[in-house]
Amino acid sequence: MCDDVIMNEQKRIYLSPPHMSGNERKYIDEAFETNWIAPLGPHIDAFEKEIAEYAGVNDAAAVSSGTAAIHLALQLLGVSEGDIVFCSSFTFVASANPIRYLGAEPVFIDSEPETWNISPQALQLAIEDAAREGSLPKAVIVVHLYGQSAKMSEILAICNHYEIPVIEDAAESLGSTYKGKPSGSFGKFGIYSFNGNKIITTSGGGMLVSNDVELLRKGRFLATQARDLASHYQHSSMGYNYRMSNVLAGIGRAQLEVLNDRVQARRNVFEKYQESFSGIRGFDFMPELEHTRSNRWLTALTIDEQETGITIPFLLEALAAENIEARPVWKPLHMQPLFENSRFYAHSEGEPVCERLFKSGICLPSGSSMTVVDQVRVVDCIHDVIKKSAGKSAQTA
Ligand SMILES: *Cc1c(COP(=O)(O)O)cnc(C)c1O
């Protein structure tokens, strides 16, 4: 099946395509009928309330992207030129870019193996160093990768001890829980993303959540060009144009109604992959920490090259030839040219955990609208690659 050199003509299977419920049109029509075609309106107010309720927090502010939400969170915490902000290294660049927007410097922290997320051990080391140097970070950005919650109890214990606020980058973990509570509700701020590839989408958008209603009020102020209370346009601080459109908030409301179904569908996809490859040595799926429930946004696993004879680039190529979109896992930020001069704290001696994951990790198509037939296509293609590489190693043995 994977032998075909020419591009496969079968339907393309995407990594994580949008999945509309059908109800979105109703809300969009409502926005049109009432002429609320603006970055404010009743859908925004309702969507904010509904997300706050879902996340179990006091308030939520709808913005134009998850990145904008991180930027606002950092600014609301007073991050400015020359400050230091700690951030998970194993994440998408959007987690850290806003640190630089504010002229601050990121320090990157390694992952630990049980969650693939920020290592409390490395975090502790980094904070002790910073305390000695008299330059404690202004904030710690904790990312919940692919829906798996980081070890929040341990992280909060460390950060609370030093009185450092935590921002949860829950862009990928809306619908996940940690010890029964929604991901994104533990830090001073949480952020969600509704980009087209996320578990629910508004095509583009984000949300900043917090229990601090006063700070979120200020966040909305900054997100609307920081207009002072005056009928003429008066400004005493610098703001942004970061609010969400009322039309898009309508899409978000319909998507939120089906979020729990979407989580279940993605978990089913994950479980089917896990079952299909259960007998194969060297395939290790992203773990799910005890007392957490991941939304399994993307099915991620590592493939041991020694054990299987398969490299990630080779497998990606075989899948691409079958018109299947798969991806490597995120390249750690401390390995990015953009951050080549940034500091990094490893989980333990030897190879950093996130570097190992990067070398051997892959994300498989995980959309909630993926059919069983589609998934069998992915599984068959991978089985094919395994068979061939087993044949090869038998020949050379
Ligand atoms: C998608 C994503 C973001 C950014 O969200 P946008 O809405 O695309 O700006 C931030 N962090 C992580 C981990 C993400 O996956």
From TrEMBL:
<keyword id="KW-0663">Pyridoxal phosphate</keyword>
<dbReference type="InterPro" id="IPR000653">
    <property type="entry name" value="DegT/StrS_aminotransferase"/>
</dbReference>
<dbReference type="Pfam" id="PF01041">
    <property type="entry name" value="DegT_DnrJ_EryC1"/>
</dbReference>
<keyword id="KW-0032">Aminotransferase</keyword>
<dbReference type="InterPro" id="IPR015421">
    <property type="entry name" value="PyrdxlP-dep_Trfase_major"/>
</dbReference>
<dbReference type="GO" id="GO:0030170">
    <property type="term" value="F:pyridoxal phosphate binding"/>
</dbReference>
<dbReference type="InterPro" id="IPR015422">
    <property type="entry name" value="PyrdxlP-dep_Trfase_small"/>
</dbReference>
<protein>
    <submittedName>
        <fullName>Pyridoxal phosphate-dependent aminotransferase EpsN</fullName>
    </submittedName>
</protein>
<feature type="active site" description="Proton acceptor">
    <location>
        <position position="198"/>
    </location>
</feature>
<feature type="modified residue" description="N6-(pyridoxal phosphate)lysine">
    <location>
        <position position="198"/>
    </location>
</feature>
<comment type="similarity">
    <text>Belongs to the DegT/DnrJ/EryC1 family.</text>
</comment>
<keyword id="KW-0808">Transferase</keyword>
<dbReference type="InterPro" id="IPR015424">
    <property type="entry name" value="PyrdxlP-dep_Trfase"/>
</dbReference>
<dbReference type="GO" id="GO:0000271">
    <property type="term" value="P:polysaccharide biosynthetic process"/>
</dbReference>
<dbReference type="GO" id="GO:0008483">
    <property type="term" value="F:transaminase activity"/>
</dbReference>
